[in-house]
Amino acid sequence: MEFRVLNYFLAIAREENMTKAARTLHVTQPVLSRQMAQLEDELGVKLFTRSNHRIRLTEDGLLLRRRAQELVTLAEKTKREFVRRETALTGEIAIGSGEFRSTQVFSKLMTDFRNLHPLVQYRIYSGNADNIQDYIQRGLLDLGLMGEPVDIRKYEFVPMPIRERWGILVPKDSRLAEKESIRLEDLNQVPLIMASRSEVFQNELNGWFGEQAGRLEIAATGNLLYNEAMLAQSGMGAVLCIQLNCTYDGLRFIPLSPVVESRTVLAWKKDQVFSPATAAFLEYAEKYLKSISSDRR
Q1: How many whole angstroms separate alpha carbon 271 and alpha carbon 273?
Q2: Residue 192 to residue 271: CA distance in whole angstroms
Q3: Could you give the CA distance from residue 55 to residue 105 in angstroms, rounded to a whole number?
Q4: Residue 153: how many other CB atoms lie within 10 Å
Q5: How far apart are CA 80 and CA 220, in angstroms?
Q6: Which of 294, 217, 209 is nearest to 260 (CA)?
Q7: CB of 281 within 8 A of CB of 120?
Q8: Dist. CA 75–CA 189, nearest whole Å
Q9: 134 and 128 in contact (C-beta within 8 Å)?
Q10: Which 3 state secondary structure label does DSSP give 250?
Q11: What is d(CA 238, CA 220) in angstroms, rounded to the nearest whole number?
């Protein structure tokens, strides 16, 4: 299976029309049709169905589209990593990040590094820890800013110097908005909007909720705080989240009591061979973050 053929297949999946796809690829339709027929023979499956001049992907076609996009993305990333210039460091660094206060420190780090190496480019992927770790394992991301815990068998990491404080976001007209802190009993019968349970309850929150963890009323889960905040604005419930350097109209953040904090880390795959740009960035990042941590002790 050639990358050229995978690109042909992705063009057809995107255009949903063989003629349009052939035009964008600058090949003839018979050539494109023959290549797809050979691809189906090679894989032993049917990839397309045709109706009313429109091409749709079968279930096998949908699976191949996902895999093909990953392969093409990885191949393009690999090519960019081998770009060299004699006089300057260049290349692309692929970074995954969740939503944290630590992002402010990390953004300053990235900016300082690029000021030293202005030909280096960043590609940022936003997601939760599970998404980011999956992409790192598959080689689609070089490193990620994520919450602990991190599997030390798979990753090297350096801690970020800021601790993330947990609390709730509630409408300002809520009875909870009058409080300076939120205790466990305050959340009795309060619908909660939060990140997925598997992610949230792996950290310090599990101990804070104790036996009540299994009796919580979960109204919704998500992976982007903005969407969760919109649900809180609509009156669905309270968002259980970390405090960020931003505000939402009509909502107030109230910290938990006793205080609950968690750590974030910059992590990368163990024994990974990096491009010169990524290797230089990691060396710079480790020194940068360790110096900040030392200053704050």
Answers
A1: 6
A2: 40
A3: 48
A4: 6
A5: 40
A6: 209
A7: yes
A8: 51
A9: no
A10: coil
A11: 10
Picking from 268, 271, 238, the residue whose alpha carbon sits closest to that of residue 254 is 238
pTM above 0.90, yes or no: no
CB atoms within 10 A of CB 254: 20
Six token digits for residue 13: 């999946």
Q: Which of 278, 194, 202, 277 has its CA nearest to residue 238?
A: 194
pLDDT over 90 (residue 177): yes
8 A C-beta contact, residue 69 and residue 3: no
Helix (H, G, I), strand (E, B), or coil: what is residue 151? coil
Strand-pair category, 261-269 with 143-147: antiparallel
Q: What is the pLDDT of residues 119-164, one digit of tens each?
A: 999 999 998 888 899 999 888 999 999 988 888 888 999 999 999 9
- In angstroms, the CA 177 to CA 142 distance is 41
State whether residue 50 is helix, strand or coil.
Answer: strand
CA 208 vs. chain centroid, Å, equals 27
Distance CA 281, CA 274 (A): 10
d(CA 71, CA 138): 10
Nearest partner of 80 among 235, 292, 275, judged by Cα? 275
Beta 155-171 vs 251-255: how paired, if at all?
A: antiparallel
Reading the block at residue 23, the tokens are 């035009």
Domains of the chain with CATH codes: 3-81 (1.10.10.10), 91-161+263-295 (3.40.190.10), 163-262 (3.40.190.10)
Rounded to an integer, the average pLDDT of 164-170 is 94
Cα first-last separation, the chain: 55
Q: Which amino acid does the sequence have at 59?
A: E
Distance between CA 194 and CA 239 in Å, rounded? 6
Strand partners, 120: 91
